[in-house]
Amino acid sequence: MRSFIVFGGAAAAEIAGCFAFWAWLRLGASPWWLLPGAASLGLFACLLTLVESDHAGRAYAAYGGIYILASVLWLWLAEGSRPDRWDVIGAAICLAGAAIILFGPRPATG
């Protein structure tokens, strides 16, 4: 459960950081947006190191599902565009995949 909380924080930090760059490049926001954006992306990277996983690649792969759900929520809550059924179905499939990657049985290593 802790991993999903960390993933949620990482997703919020990554999306906020990426949105700062989006706002600067696509919405004409001030270049000052890049400072909190870069800090947010740094926080994202640090948070991913807190996930309980023996391998970084596995943690990143599982995080992908959480990131997709968080992106759909961002679409709805921050951008005001309600997700359609395909957004919801896709996010649910990705969450299932993330859970399988993170919690699937693995052979014991000696």
From TrEMBL:
Recorded coiled-coil stretches: none
SUPFAM superfamilies: Multidrug resistance efflux transporter EmrE (SSF103481)
Annotated compartments: Cell membrane
TM helices/strands, residue ranges: 30-51, 58-76, 88-105
Bilayer disposition of the protein: Multi-pass membrane protein
Main location: membrane
Record-linked Pfam families: UPF0060 (PF02694)
InterPro entries noted in UniProt: EmrE-like, UPF0060
Keywords of this entry: Cell membrane, Membrane, Transmembrane, Transmembrane helix
A cellular component annotation (GO) from this entry: plasma membrane
Record NCBIfam families: PRK02237.1
Family, similarity comment: Belongs to the UPF0060 family.
Name this polypeptide is given: Small multidrug resistance family-3 protein
Species lineage: Bacteria, Pseudomonadati, Pseudomonadota, Alphaproteobacteria, Rhodospirillales
